[in-house]
Amino acid sequence: MQNAPESSLVGQEYEVEVGPVAHGGHCVARTQDGRVLFVRHALPGEKVVAKVTEGEEDSRFLRADAVQVLEPSKDRVEAPCPYAGPGKCGGCDWQHAKPGAQRRFKGEVVAEQLQRLAGLTPEEAGWDGTVMPAPGDKLPAGEVPAWRTRVQYAVDADGRAGLRKHRSHEVQPVDHCMIAAPGVSELGVEKRDWPQMATVEAIAATGSNDRQVVLTPRPGGRLPLVELDKPVSVLRVEERDGSVHRVHGRAFVRERADERTYRVGMGGFWQVHPQAADMLVKAVMQGLLPRKGDMALDLYCGVGLFAGALADRVGEKGAVLGIESGKRAVEDARHNLQHFDRVRIEQGKVESVLPRTGIEEVDLIVLDPPRAGAGKQTVNHLASLGARRIAYVACDPAALARDLAYFREGGYKPRTLRAFDLFPMTHHVECVAILEPVREGV
Length: 442
Hints:
By secondary structure, this protein is of the alpha/beta class. Helices cover 19% and strands 31% of the residues. It has 8 helices and 22 strands. It has helices at 99-118, 182-185, 276-288, 305-314, 327-336, 350-357, 376-383, 397-409; strands at 13-22, 26-30, 36-40, 47-54, 62-71, 131-133, 150-155, 161-164, 171-173, 197-204, 211-217, 233-237, 244-248, 252-257, 260-265, 295-299, 319-324, 343-347, 364-367, 389-394, 412-421, 430-437. Strands 6-21-22-20-19-16-17-18 form an 8-stranded mixed β-sheet, with helices on both faces. α5 links the parallel β17 and β18 (343-347).
């Protein structure tokens, strides 16, 4: 039974001292009567007026926005983006924080998740506590790196492109997204109307001049004639089953990483920051140190980024098995790696396909699971394969920490952990953990 409307605390204001940063792009505060607030647009140590945006009398916690800053932090800057702030675009979490402070906050969140969910200190995880920016992203306070090579614009009822407000379907129209990469901005999506469209995703490949828009019509909506400021291929998401079809131009974009070109089809997954793929491949290969003749697994392999890097390094006597659930991504991976005789890509969920392979022993494992993590069943299976080293690429520190705890039960511990700020202005952070078997007596 739903609570009565009068139990809602939305709109209630509290004057609070802001506590530590928490996972999710907000800080924790407590009201004088002991209520827990998750406050956005605030910084640790500040005194603010927080206005409740979600929550009721009996809620475990309330969500709120800092609508007035009474005592600002030294880490605060005026948000460069006019669409950042309470009640506006929900795409960025930390526009109001200095870039160095953003990375420090992300490091604090990673450390807190490791401690709480895996019982690991930074030292025990082999991590120096820093979050590394991508080269070129280290900008002065008040400047914003234009890094996002894939932007999904929502479209309002008037056909204007924008971005969704935080935890809402409501659209904030924008003239320009400051974190959008130049290749996205130059398409001019924000400058034209999109009648009958629900979303417009703009993609600007890093390794080529390929540009793509993926249109999702509203129910019964007809595609507009797409005339943008740059040559672009157009794809359509089908209302019936969510499948993606080519309207005109290429069905894929060409991305480049580790001195190899990858085909990424039909709006498929690729790292969003232009330098992310190269940085992550380098971190994974430096951690694994592949040898000629190694047998390796690349799990949740996408279009074959890590499988290609592994295949290069294990040589003709080595072998790589990639597993990926997405049908289109598997087609792309097989195309991208077709000249490697000893690379095989299987389609299906890792937890289903891996047991069916009959593989009982491997030398190296790379896994780059979705945001929810790999989970106990898969981790237990991986730990049984006796790999010399395992590289875990994680976009969510909570999922990483949970899985590290499962790996510890299976006899593996972190050798090193590195954190990368590949999503500036947001709360997201990418981590690469290198695991190795626990030696007896250690």
